[in-house]
Amino acid sequence: MEERAWYVVQTSSGFENAAKRNIERRVESMKMSDKIFNVLVPEVIETEKKKNGELKEIVVKPYPGYVFIDMIVTDDTWFMVRNTPSVTGFLGSSGGGAKPVPLHNDEILPVLKMCGINTNKTLNCKPGDKCKVMSGNFAGQECVVDSIDEPKQQVKVLIEVFGRQVTLELGFDDIKIL
After folding, report:
1. In 12-163, which ranges are E strands?
2. Residues 9 and 18: beta-carbon distance below 8 Å
3. Does pLDDT of 120 surpass 70?
4. How far apart, in whole angstroms, are the C-alpha atoms of residue 30 and residue 33?
């Protein structure tokens, strides 16, 4: 099964909003809303001082030439986004039909926070509950929740490695409660 993740799409600088509109239109017309969930052009408001001393608020794009897209990459979605007007390609795709590399949580979370999107997840468990590691070197192994750090969105788990209990620090998305 394909995984939902955030990807970076390249555009020409100044054409970010046009690329976003074009992608959203194509998602609707091609009925891909079950695979492409969110298209984001980060913007922040800064205050600029004019020559006459007045303060003026301006909208600044901190990532010119880039659009962030929350999607499940399949051959169809990749082809549709890649061939959308104003899109020049995916960041992390080496060409030749290579699929793009998704952003890690620590890369996309600051961008989402900047845009005011609430990314805090809750973990419905308590220390002592059993869970399963979903990614990384220990994927598929069962473990026990040791402690939960809500603000950091991390959980410490105890896992058995070569007959010894080892503590791992994982993100909320890296485990599944059993």
Report:
1. 36-40, 44-49, 55-60, 66-72, 87-90, 130-133, 142-149, 154-161
2. no
3. no
4. 9
Q: Alpha-carbon torsion 69, 67, 150, 154, what sign?
A: positive
d(CA 77, CA 89): 13
Q: Are 24 and 3 in contact (CB under 8 A)?
A: no
Distances in Å between the Cα of 85 and the Cα atoms of 6, 19, 29, 96, 111 are 20, 7, 14, 19, 24
3-state helix, strand, coil in the chain (%, to 5): 20, 40, 45
Q: Cβ(121)–Cβ(172) under 8 Å?
A: yes
Instruction: Read off the pLDDT band of 1 (50, 70, 90).
Output: very low
3-class SS of residue 72: strand
CB of 51 closer than 8 Å to CB of 127 = no
Look up the pTM and report it.
Answer: 0.65
The H or E element spanning position 9 is strand 4-11
Q: How far apart are CA 66 and CA 121, in angstroms?
A: 26
Q: 32-58: per-residue pLDDT in tens?
A: 989 999 899 998 888 888 888 888 888
Total Cβ atoms within 10 A of residue 137: 8
